[in-house]
Amino acid sequence: MSVALGILISGHGSNLQALIDACSDDNFPANIAIVISNNFNAYGLKRAAKANIPTKVVNHNCFGSREQYDDKLAEILEGAGVELICLAGFMRILSKTFVDRWKNRIINVHPSLLPAFKGLNVHQRVIDAGVRFSGCTIHYVRSELDSGPIIVQSVVPVAFNDTPDTLSAKVLETEHRCYPIAVRLIAERRINMHEESLVIEGVGIPDHTMINPNSF
Q: Does residue 37 sit in the same domain as residue 89?
């Protein structure tokens, strides 16, 4: 049975496009029920419309508190029958109440190898730190920023002449590969949670993708 996804975006929506492309395969175990943005001008809304996916814009400026905004999000997501929320460049911090309500049903992509380089301006900070490898992380969401059990990580080398833009492009490319993998693992119920750690059943993960070492 296909798992219904709710995708939250704020901007360009390239990871949304990766999920749209994955879901277009009849053998993929998930479908996108709705795309929600806090930004009327998000290009990702056009991507969703082109794929005939329902969209909704919920402007956070129209709400008196973060909790009120998140309550509206929950109402829309539940109304659309969403089972798994995918944050794909959603530039808002969700309230603890919302995150706890959807525990283990929200995942996020972050452009570093968490727990390193949480927060913003990741690629400049990676270069300034002089590290040799960066990458992306798909993880379950917790109320603490950029935390939660890691599902999939992928590594990219940091070249001596990389700029934040060139590094971003390399990391984004691997995000597009990893996000559908993480969704498939969840939709096929291959992830077993044990408090704040997880175990992943074998699924033929591509060589470029690392699974959390604690999974084995």
A: yes
